[in-house]
Amino acid sequence: MLASRRFVALAKFLAIIAAFVLLLHVGVEMYASRHNTTGQSIYDKWTNALSREKAYGGGATGENQYSPEGTKPVRAALVALVRNQELYGMRKTIRELEDRWNHKYNYPYILLNDKPFSEKFKQGIQDLTKAKVEFGVLEPGTWGYPEWVDQIKAKEERDNANYIKGHSESYRFMCRFQSGFVYKHPLLKDLDYYWRIEPDVHYFCDIDYDPFLFMKTNGYKYGWNIAPTEYEPTVRTLWNTTQDFMNKNPELIPQHNMLDWVRRSDGTYTRCHFWSNFEIVDLSFYRSKEYEAYFNHLDRSGGFFYERWGDAPIHSIAVSMFLKKSQVHYFDDIGYYHPAMAHCPAGSKERGKCICDPNEGGADNFMCAKRFRQIS
Prior knowledge:
By secondary structure, the protein is α/β, with parallel strands linked by helices. It has 13 helices and ten strands. It has helices at 2-32, 42-55, 87-105, 119-126, 151-160, 169-180, 211-218, 238-248, 283-286, 289-301, 303-306, 311-322, 367-374, and strands at 76-81, 109-113, 133-137, 193-196, 202-203, 222-224, 279-282, 328-330, 336-338, 341-343. The strands form two sheets. A seven-stranded mixed β-sheet has the order 3-2-1-4-7-6-8. α3 links the parallel β1 and β2 (109-113). α8 crosses α10. The chain is globular. The relative contact order is 0.13.
């Protein structure tokens, strides 16, 4: 009888302790909610924390798979097209990526150039990271004019252009390469995902998860961060050429897609595009027969040179044409700046792991970002 009373007393004591711990936890969560930029309830935060461990793979804590020599959970790399003279800008980018994220995950870098990299460039990059770094030269035929382009007509367009990069020949080579060849380079042949990076950009936030694993776990094909509108003089006939492709290849266009993001109700082009200087992509998308057919159709038209079609609107139309919205992810938790535009998560001046001013990085309020949130 005495033992029974002791057992009951112990059970009550443990229940009181458990209740106290629970109340303390709730109190901490309520206080922390003042610092929550997402507007989630405490219940949402609990359940999301559990799902985040599954979906994001948790944080890197020194496991062997994330060591520099470890076999990563995703076959992926950070990829840049960069020149020797952009060493300082590339060093700044990689320094921030390492500080904010990759020192924990050690995903490899692949840097490509239309000319061989100098030893100075290679050493300047390798000094910054423990991760593997590979340097490659572009393959013949992937940089320059295809044989069917009228170079006199192309020069006339450059001479008369009054838009940004309008006079640049190499910029057009770059747009064509990024649209149809980067994912075919031999150094990328074993990759399943890539994260495109560029010189002279900024990453404002600590990233405490593996975006590649997040993409893979959730079945996302394309990830983006900033979505502006394209400058109309550079894409004068891109939408008409796309419509011609769709009319000729109806069997390639799935019934359920997100074309309404780039197409208004009257059928005209919104010029919305994902700014492709930041994109995280399942490369099976770019390697698909649908994307390849679309790129070849555009390439044969000559629009890269007779206008100044960018890889960003081409990637974006392809995403809208061939994917469902559920396959596309907005990385709105990653603060990012590319010269001229920035995305800064709300509340970053006062709290969280981002250092930026949302008033100076308002890409989340761009018309195309809002339109993305509105479409189904």
